[in-house]
Amino acid sequence: MFEISTSASFEASHYIEAEAGAAHYRDNAMRAKAAIAALTTEIAAAVTPLADRPVVVFHDAYQYFERRFGLKVVGSITVSPDIPPSAKRLSELRRRIASLGAACVFAEPQFEPALVRTVTEGTKARAGVLGKKDAGEEPKEKLE
């Protein structure tokens, strides 16, 4: 998916600036593809132990990620990160985590981890984090 859009971006920019910038755009496209491939490999290695094991996410926004990396998501703490979950939802989710033997409940660095502790308490599920704390910061290597 990312490779296709990166290639399409390169092709479009190539026509816009055919002579002067083509090599520059091609180099950036190749570096972007390499960075995406490396990150994909890193993520795949990190989530491989969870393949086909039930996991829970903070909110239901990971369908593409789930399919790409073979995660079996069986629930989410909240439907929308803007609306706090009810006590009933948290209680039901904790029962589901315990009954299905969920391996992990994924938090996100920008949201309160107390909710993850609440639903994993008394279960064998471990807490994990999807995303990086520095996700909103400038990339280390900029494509120019």
In whole angstroms, how far apart are the ends? Answer: 22 Å
Q: What fraction of residues sit in β-strands? A: 5-15%
Full CATH superfamily name of the largest domain = Nitrogenase molybdenum iron protein domain
Number of domains: 2
Q: What is the radius of gyration computed over CA atoms, rounded to a whole number of angstroms?
A: 20 Å
**Which spans have pLDDT < 50 for at least 5 consecutive residues?**
none
> If helices are DSSP runs of H or I spanning 4 or more residues, what is the number of helices?
5
Overall spatial form: elongated
Supply the CATH architecture of the largest domain.
3-Layer(aba) Sandwich
Number of DSSP-assigned strands: 4
Give the averaged pLDDT, no decimals. Answer: 82
Report strand order across the widest sheet: 2-1-3-4
CATH class of the largest domain: Alpha Beta
CATH topology of the largest domain: the name is Rossmann fold
Structural class comes to alpha/beta
Main beta sheet, described? 4 strands, parallel
- Tell me the series of helices and strands, N- to C-terminal: HHEHEHEHE
Percent in helix? 40-55%
Textual characterization of the structure:
- By secondary structure, this protein is of the alpha/beta class.
- The chain folds into 2 domains: 2-46; 51-129, 3-Layer(aba) Sandwich (Rossmann fold).
- It has helices spanning 2-16, 22-47, 63-69, 87-100, 114-120, and strands spanning 54-59, 72-78, 104-107, 126-129.
- Strands 2-1-3-4 form a 4-stranded parallel β-sheet, covered by helices on one side.
- Helix 3 (63-69) links the parallel strand 1 and strand 2 (72-78).
- Helix 1 (2-16) packs antiparallel against helix 2 (22-47) and helix 4 packs across helix 5 (114-120).
- The chain is elongated.
- The two termini are 22 Å apart.
